Structure formats: C-alpha cells, structure tokens
Amino acid sequence: MTRYIVIGAGAVGGTLGGKLTQHGIDAVLIARGEHGQALVESGLRLRTPDENLTLPVAAATGPTGVRLRRDDVIVIATKTHQAADALTQWADQPVYDGETVAGTAGELLPVLTMLNGVASELLALRYFRLVYGVCIWLPAVHLEPGEVIARSAPVPGLFHIGRYPASASADTALLEQIKADWTKAGFAIQLPADVMEWKYNKLLSNIVNAIQALVGKNGDFASIVKQARAEASGVLDAAGIAYASREMEAELRAIGPKVRPVPGEPDELGGSSWQSLARGTGNIETDYLNGEIALIARQHGLAAPINTKIASLARIAAATGQRPGDISADELATILGI
C-alpha cells in the first residue's frame, strides 16, 4: 500500500495530508517547530467551507520519527527556499525492505516536488533519482500551529503531476496510483506530458503573490499585477520557454478549486507570500517567483526591472518584519516607476 510522506505540512501539505488521512489513505505529515509538535500531540485541525475537523494524523517533526519503506512516496511541500534543506535531510535516509536496509531514499523512492516556482525539480535531481513535478492550485492558509484552513470546496485543489524531466521514462503505474489515491481524497488530478509547461503557467499566476503580500488591503494593485505579469510573460516568450495558455488554465479551473467562505474567517485571506509576512517568518519565497523572472531575463540578456524590484522589496519586508499593508498600492507603484 502506497504511503505518502508529506514534508512541509503547512497550508498545501497539511491540506493534502489531512484529506488523505480523512479518506483512509496512508500519509505521514512532517512539520517543524510548534506546528509539528501540535500535529504530533493533538492532530490536525482542518477547516474548510463545509467541515471543521480534528484529524488524528500520523505526524513527525523530522526523519528520525519515520522508518521509510519501499512503497513510500516522498512529497516535498515546503516553500521553495526551504526545499534544499528538506531534500538533503531526507535523501540519504535508509529505506527498509522488511528488516533489511535496501538503500537510501534518494536511490529508491520517488519524490514529488509540490512547490511554487520552477526551480525545485532541477534541485531535487541532485538528490533523488526519480523526480515528479507537481503544479499546485490549492487555496489554503496556515497561520496557527496545528491548524490549516482549506478555502475551496467540494474540490480542495487541482494538481498537475508529471515526471521531470519530461524526456525521462515515467512510471505510469505510480502516476495512476497517485491519481487514484488523491482523487479518492477529493482532489482533481491531471497527468500532462510535460508538467513544466503548467509550472511556468503557474509562475505567471504567482507574480501577484509578493504584490498582495506587500500591499494587503491597502489599495488597488490590479494595474501593478497586470504590468508585472506582462513583463514576466514577455521574458518567458523571449527566452523561448513554453507555458500552458491562459485559455487552457481557464478550462481546467472549471473543474478545479472554487473558493468559498470558511466560517469564522474573512472572505479574503492571502496567498503563500502574504502568509509569510502575516506570520512574521523572516523569509519569503519571492526569489523563486518574481526573482525567477529576473534570473531568466539575465540569462538571456534581457531586463525585468519591475519583477526584480518587487523581489527586492519582498526580501526586505520579510527581513525587517513588515506586515501586509505596510505599504500602499500607490506607494508601491511610485517605487516601481509605473
């Protein structure tokens, strides 16, 4: 029986692991700090538009709390800037076949890179032989230890999953097993030929994350997002990088997440970068979102001044303890010169 080791059981990983557990699918949730301790001691409180559950999840705070086996699937669901630590921590862990060590996780187990951005798949190949990218469409929030708020129902999330690189031979049976298990847990699953086309599409969608995190509700930032996204898509086009079209995205959104109010919570809750500032984590994943556009631009002799500056502002905001809304949309537009 396939077991999913979900490393980074925050908003996305917590929703996945909680839903798998709720539907009788074997999963272990891995989280650090107060959140991890709360999962171990009290289980996961999973709040959705329709449910308020406390699930007795299997949980651990690190690899010493898990005995890996041959039928495990590793799911990395941290932020991208935390992925390297997670990969190095788990790649060399022993995998058991009964009482015998059969090899290491990096040699034997598939790893699913369930993160925003497009950098984690290549990073994972340094440590794991079998890498599968996951493009995530899952509106969820993690602000309090032991609790995750999944904001979509009845489908909590939509995932595109595929082997990385696309030219590598994929284990069709594994992909079909993941699809069957995760569909049973309520998710919508697609198995595209090239998952990276969807991850680059999502990269463009995630351009808004840092802007939303900086401005919060302090003004209308739609025009900033439009210009930053236009710059980003122009960079990808000039670099010859393929990405799924907005029309393809719209078609799939019809079967994907539908955000609805969660009782006791405001109608609007921010994305992953907003949550980083709201929780005061001291770090933020923007270097792998807007900063990824800056990197691609520089690699191809181009410029991306809007996204470059947004990445810088987000880094400074995280490092200095700024909160969403500490800067207004008008102030941000002036700083960006747009």
Automatic annotation (TrEMBL):
Pfam annotation, one family: ApbA
Domain Ketopantoate reductase C-terminal: 194-315
Superkingdom classification of source: Bacteria
InterPro entries: 6-PGluconate_DH-like_C_sf, 6PGD_dom2, KPA_reductase, KPR_N, NAD(P)-bd_dom_sf
Domain Ketopantoate reductase N-terminal as annotated: residue spans: 5-163
Name this protein carries in UniProt: 2-dehydropantoate 2-reductase
